[in-house]
Design brief:
By secondary structure, the chain is α+β, with helices and mostly antiparallel strands. It has one domain: Pseudouridine synthase (2-Layer Sandwich), CATH 3.30.2350.10. Helix content is 14%, strand content 31%. The chain has four helices and twelve strands. A hairpin with a 3-residue loop joins β7 and β8. The radius of gyration is 18 Å and the shape is globular.
């Protein structure tokens, strides 16, 4: 993908208040630098201070080739609160995937523990293992077309590569998945929406991310046309007050 500028990242802010930001992460860019360095989102976070003395930090992760909703905490107090919500499974995450093949049923749940293994000379991958960490994903078929499926995924846990491994186990890997599928083309996995019960006695903060071009193209055979885009960030006077915590 083309290099992302600080201005590009600011334009990708979907939601902002005193505690958190939600941004629309582009596919193809890792959230942080790997062992070998390289371009990453974190190196641009200074552009997202919006008047605070320090840049925000990641509250969770998305894979390099996954696009969509990514949540950042704006300071330490916010990160502690967000960390508890994610670790306690209180954050509702919704993903869309286009898969090679489709399940026979219309909905279900995959409950299969996952474990990270490292193979000499072949890097690492996640595998289903009885001694792995618990991993549960709810799935629902939104459409079928041309030998592919359009699935909505709601992971109850947040393991690395969870959706990708679970869909491969189901027999319909994410299209474009080089690690767990055929790997032909872009990875068709998008973090469509997220909802966080961040403020007591208030509705959850709900954010949706528009589809990138490669996802819109892949969903066209299913008859999907995106009409509405998420609302821009709220004006300052309408944003939540971080003192609510």
């Amino acid at each position: 993908m083309a290099a992302l500028t600080p201005e590009d990242l600011v334009a990708r802010v979907l939601y902002r208040d005193g505690l958190m930001l939600a941004i629309d992460k582009p596919a193809g860019l890792p959230v942080h630098a790997g062992p070998g360095g390289g371009d990453n989102l974190e190196e641009l976070f200074d552009a997202l201070r919006f008047g605070l003395p320090r840049p925000p930090a990641l509250a969770h992760r998305l894979d390099r080739d996954t696009s969509g909703c990514l949540v950042l905490g704006r300071h330490r107090k916010a990160l502690r609160r967000l960390g508890r919500l994610f670790s306690e499974g209180l954050v509702e995450k919704t993903y869309w995937a286009v898969t090679d093949g489709a399940p026979a049923g219309d909905s279900g749940t995959i409950d299969a523990a996952l474990k990270k293994i490292t193979r000499k000379g072949a890097g690492w991958r996640m595998v289903v293992a009885a001694d792995g960490q618990a991993a549960v994903t709810d799935w629902r078929v939104l459409g079928r077309a041309g030998g592919r499926g359009w699935l909505e995924l709601r992971p109850r846990t947040g393991r690395t590569h969870q959706i990708r491994v679970h869909l491969a186990l189901l027999g319909c890997p994410v299209a474009g998945d080089e690690a767990y599928g055929r790997g032909d083309g872009a990875l068709l996995l998008h973090a469509r929406a997220i909802a966080l019960p961040l403020y007591p006695a208030r509705p959850p903060v709900a954010v949706a991310a528009p589809l990138p071009d490669h996802m819109r193209t892949a969903l066209a055979p299913f008859g999907f046309v995106e009409q509405d885009r998420p609302a821009p960030p709220q004006p300052e006077e309408n944003r939540h007050d971080s003192r609510a915590l």
